[in-house]
Design a protein that fits this description.
It is built from 2 helices and 5 strands; from the N terminus they run βαββββα. With 94 residues, it is of the alpha+beta class. The longest helix has 19 residues.
């Protein structure tokens, strides 16, 4: 059984749901390129995963919530992954 570490980030926004979905899609697209993550939309939830990491981005009309589970081998990168997500949110959801 592997240990998991989680990242939880919520941010309110004024983009509206469609612009927020597009921005979330770009965020996960960047993560997919950097970390070779597979992702797909299910309604307003963007699910992503690869060995050692999985998560979901929930997009609403006024808020976005990101949940990421990191496996043992990516635990050391938790702060850099979290900082990268926060940087992106600061740029695109402020």
């Amino acid at each position: 059984m592997s240990e998991m570490s989680s990242i939880e980030i919520s941010r309110s926004h004024r983009l509206g749901k469609e612009k927020a979905r597009s921005a979330a899609d770009r965020l996960v697209g960047e993560l997919a390129e950097e970390f070779e993550v597979d992702y797909a939309w299910q309604g307003d939830h963007l699910h992503f995963e690869r060995p050692g990491v999985s998560g979901v981005v929930e997009v609403g009309a006024h808020a976005i919530h990101i949940h990421v589970d990191l496996g043992l081998f990516l635990f050391a990168l938790k702060s850099s992954i979290e900082n990268e997500i926060r940087r992106y949110l600061d740029q695109h959801f402020a």
